[in-house]
Write a structure and sequence with these properties.
Shape: elongated
Number of strands: 0
Number of helices: 4
Distance between the termini: 98 Å
Helix content: 55-70%
Strand content: under 5%
Largest sheet: none
Amino acid sequence: MSTAPPATASLDALSGPLADALIVTALAMAALMATAVVLTRGTVRQAIVLSGYGMVLGLLFLILQAPDVAMSQFGVGTVVLPLLVVLALHATRRHRAEGPGAGHAGGGDEGEQNAGPGAEHGDGHGDGHGGEARR
């Protein structure tokens, strides 16, 4: 007579009410962090909060048993993406600080070089808005 092994509880680590509570908590944290990213005013602060959001998403993927996706999220969402945002902000601010005519070739007055749609309004910037000169 062969005896069947006794029925055991599921060997899956994430099953049962405790695991469900952990998943719901991770989802709530992800939603909270996403809201925090959107509501953050300062751009550098927003990049830092974005890094925290990437970490929470990585933890969520780890809880949902997707370790390869979690590792990618930790690398890209927590480090690379916020770093790119901060570097882009730095480059933009440095470009603005150099002055409006620093990147133009050929010299001369900025209003003479720029013959865009706003040039007929006399603002010299070609932005299409017309109105007063910004000098």
